[in-house]
Each structure stands twice: as structure tokens, then as C-alpha cells.
Write a structure and sequence with these properties.
This protein is globular. The strands form six sheets. A nine-stranded mixed beta sheet has the order 1-8-7-9-2-10-19-3-20, with helices on both faces. It has a four-stranded antiparallel beta sheet with strand order 13-14-16-15. With 407 residues, the chain is α/β, with parallel strands linked by helices. α7 runs parallel beside α9 and α8 packs antiparallel against α9. The longest helix is centred in the middle third of the chain and has 23 residues. It has two domains: 285 residues, Alkaline Phosphatase, subunit A (3-Layer(aba) Sandwich); 89 residues, Gyrase A, domain 2 (2-Layer Sandwich), CATH 3.30.1360.180. It has twelve helices and 21 strands. Helix content is 28%, strand content 20%. It starts with a helix and ends in a 20-residue tail after the last helix.
């Protein structure tokens, strides 16, 4: 095992590719680490294993829950958090989507297609910072290892979920303790444990408690490591998740082929927000066939509720289908491949079960505040304020998260 870890560490060091050097940021400014705990539902913080997270919340700021962007999926929300834009404006409207102009289907597993910069709109915070002379580093974040607007973080790691979590923490600590003329002042860090456990077993399962305790221990290792290096009062931690989780099962399914001929449509994405493009001339009939389907809301693109901010992008399909909480959009053929089980997300982003985690603590953060639910578009302007950079145009408002000591 030790030999394996040494080999992984060597490979990891080689993979953290430095981009061309950028000027150092202002001396003496605090650094900020943005940490994603994928699929960490807001109320998980009350579970027994979240000891370190509760301690950080007590000495900083937390939200009752953070409201993810619609759809409450991984890639749209990670990219919203770092751009401050709703998916309709930054273009990552789903984990799976089609763009006729690019002539390709984007999926989160196809890194070759996803590398095309035309998919990625807006300006992620690492680009905002680098453009203004602040070095950044990314240990995983959707988009961080792609040349968005022709830029990378100064240091970044191509995504490989096999990299041990402890090595991720170690690399972040190593970056932060580099000499001042090379150290980044903004770093991202990502863990998928709670999302994986929630999908496999459902949000109430003991396996999720184990995952919560594991990621909590990683945050603890980071906090301890910062203190040991004399950085405890020089680093702000902003800990977020992208969405929550809700249980699903085989008793709550919506078979689309019970209501229409699937040959009349292209289903770009299935669950729980189905992206449907009817074949030429079929839209009125398909809409009428689906709109009375139990446990399913069916919207024409131009009538998607305004609160979803999900109309203004050509990648959004002509019909958007939204399942009721806990229900699965599927087909007879798909059910033969396996019954729904465990948990999932992507539902109405205002549901408490979709609520995401938000905690901020550090030298530039106020103490002892609990915020009412707020939209995650406001995180980007907060990060810009912490870094002392001018934000790019975004859908958030700096005053919506007035939680720094300067506010």
C-alpha cells in the first residue's frame, strides 16, 4: 500500500501542470480555498459524523441551505458556483446536452468533447483572478482543466477520481506553503464521497453517514495542516455542495412510452429533468400526449417557470419534463436494464431535499451567523470580494452575501 501511495503521489505531482507564470497578487492578502462536497445535502451537517463542519460553521457563517441552480445536477451547479451565472447563461445546462452548432453531445464522461471551449460560457473565478494577477490552483472542479477563454489556473490537476482523497489534501497544503512569489491565493478542492453513497444507497442509509464522517475527516486534516504550517489565520475556507439528494425506488416510475411513441422524439437527457426534442411537426402532439401525465410537469421551453432561469439557451430542448420529487422518468426498455434504487437529484431546486451546503470560515469571514436560504449564484461575487478582484458580469449580487469582515 505504501508503494502504491508513493507512486500515486509521484504521478499526482507530475499531473499538476503549471501554466505560464502570472504576476503575484498583493502581498499579505489571505488565500481562499473553495471546497466541494458533492451531493452533501444541507441537513447532513446535523448527522453525527459532521463534527469538523459544525465547528467551522460555529466560528464562521453557514446557510440553512443553499439553493442550487436548476436543474440541480453536478456540472450545471459546479459551474454556476464559480461563474455566478445561471446555466441558461453559462451554457452548461445539464450533465448531458446537445449543441447543433458544435455538432456534438456533451456528457460528463466524455472529456474529449467537453474540452471544446465553446461549451463553456462566462468566466470562472480562477480566470477572473488570473486575469487580474492572482495565482490560482485547482484540485478538480468541472472546467478547471480546460482552456476556458484561453486560460487555465496556474496549477491544475486533470480529473481522475482514483486519486486518494488524502493526497488531494496534501497537495492543497503544499500549494499554499509554496514561496510567496509562487503560491496560489485561490484553490479549489473536490470530493465525491457523499454523492456516490447517496446515489448507491439513498440519503438515509448508514453508508451516507460513513461518507459524511470521511469527508469531515478530510476537512479536519486540512484545518489541522493549515494550523501546523502557520496558515490557520491566513486562509479562508468556503465549503459548498452542488445539490442535495432524495430517495428513489421502483414503485415510482413514469414510463414515457406509456404516453407516446418514443420514435416521435429524441430524449437527450432522462432524469429527473428530461430534455425532449420532438421530431419535425410532432411538438404539438407530443406536448398534448405528455401534459396530463401523472407526477410529471411538462413545459414548452418558453413557458418554463421564470424562477428556474431555464429558457434562454439554444441547448435547452423544446420540451422540458420535470418529475415530482422521488419519481423517475424512464421507459420500458430502460427499466429492463435496472430498477431505480438508492437516491438521486436534479429535481425542483427549491425543494429542501435538493438544498446544498454552504459554510465559510476564516480570517476575513464574520462569525456566528446563520443565513436564510440563498441562490448559489451569489458565491462567485463573494469569492471575488475575498480575493480583492473585480468580478466579471454575473447573475449574483455581492450584497446578498455580505459576510466578510469588511461588510
Amino acid at each position: 500500500m505504501r508503494r502504491f501511495l508513493l507512486i500515486m503521489l509521484a504521478a499526482l505531482t507530475a499531473a499538476c501542470r503549471p501554466a505560464p507564470a502570472t504576476p503575484a497578487g498583493p502581498a499579505g492578502r489571505s488565500a481562499t480555498v473553495l471546497i466541494s462536497l458533492d451531493g452533501f445535502r444541507a441537513d447532513y451537517i446535523t448527522r453525527p459524523g459532521a463534527v469538523t463542519l459544525r465547528a467551522l460553521a460555529a466560528r464562521g457563517v453557514r446557510a440553512e441551505r443553499m439553493i442550487p441552480a436548476f436543474p440541480s445536477k453536478t456540472f450545471p451547479n459546479h459551474y454556476t458556483i464559480v461563474t455566478g451565472l445561471y446555466p441558461e447563461h453559462h451554457g452548461i445546462v445539464a450533465n448531458t446536452m446537445v449543441d447543433a452548432r458544435i455538432g456534438a453531445t456533451f456528457t460528463i464522461g466524455d472529456t474529449l468533447i467537453a474540452r471544446d471551449p465553446r461549451w463553456w460560457g462566462g468566466e470562472p473565478i480562477w480566470n477572473t483572478a488570473e486575469r487580474q494577477g492572482v495565482r490560482t490552483a485547482a484540485f478538480f472542479w468541472p472546467g478547471s482543466d480546460y482552456a476556458i477563454n484561453g486560460r487555465y489556473p496556474t496549477y491544475y490537476t486533470p480529473f481522475d477520481n482514483r486519486v486518494p482523497d488524502t493526497l488531494r489534501v496534501r497537495q492543497v497544503l503544499d500549494w499554499l506553503t509554496m514561496p510567496a512569489d509562487r503560491a496560489p491565493r485561490f484553490v479549489t478542492l473536490y470530493f465525491s464521497n457523499t454523492d456516490n453513497a447517496g446515489h448507491d444507497h439513498g440519503p438515509d442509509a448508514p453508508q451516507v453517514d460513513t461518507a459524511i464522517a470521511h469527508v469531515d475527516s478530510l476537512i479536519g486534516a486540512l484545518v489541522t495542516g493549515l494550523a501546523a504550517r502557520g496558515l490557520g489565520e491566513r486562509v479562508n475556507l468556503v465549503i459548498v455542495s452542488d445539490h442535495g439528494m432524495t430517495p428513489i425506488d421502483g414503485s415510482r416510475v413514469i414510463r414515457l412510452d406509456d404516453y407516446l411513441d418514443l420514435n416521435d422524439v429524441d430524449v437527450v437527457d432522462w432524469m429527473p429533468v428530461a430534455a425532449v426534442t420532438p421530431k419535425p411537426g410532432k411538438l404539438p402532439a407530443v406536448y398534448e400526449a405528455l401534459r396530463r401525465t401523472p407526477h410529471l410537469q411538462v413545459f414548452r421551453k418558453d413557458s418554463v417557470p421564470a424562477r428556474f432561469h431555464y429558457r434562454d439557451n439554444p441547448r435547452i430542448t423544446p420540451l422540458v419534463l420535470l418529475a415530482d420529487e422521488g419519481w423517475t422518468i424512464t421507459s420500458t426498455a430502460r427499466l429492463r436494464m435496472g430498477q431505480p434504487r438508492g437516491g438521486t437529484h436534479g429535481y425542483d431546486n427549491f425543494l429542501p431535499s435538493m438544498g446544498a451546503l454552504f459554510i465559510a470560515a476564516g480570517p476575513d469571514i464574520q462569525q456566528g451567523r446563520v443565513l436564510a436560504p440563498f441562490a448559489n449564484v451569489h458565491v462567485y461575487p463573494l469569492l471575488a470580494r475575498l480575493l480583492g478582484v473585480k468580478p466579471a458580469p454575473n447573475d449574483g449580487h455581492a450584497d446578498s452575501l455580505a459576510i466578510t469582515r469588511r461588510d
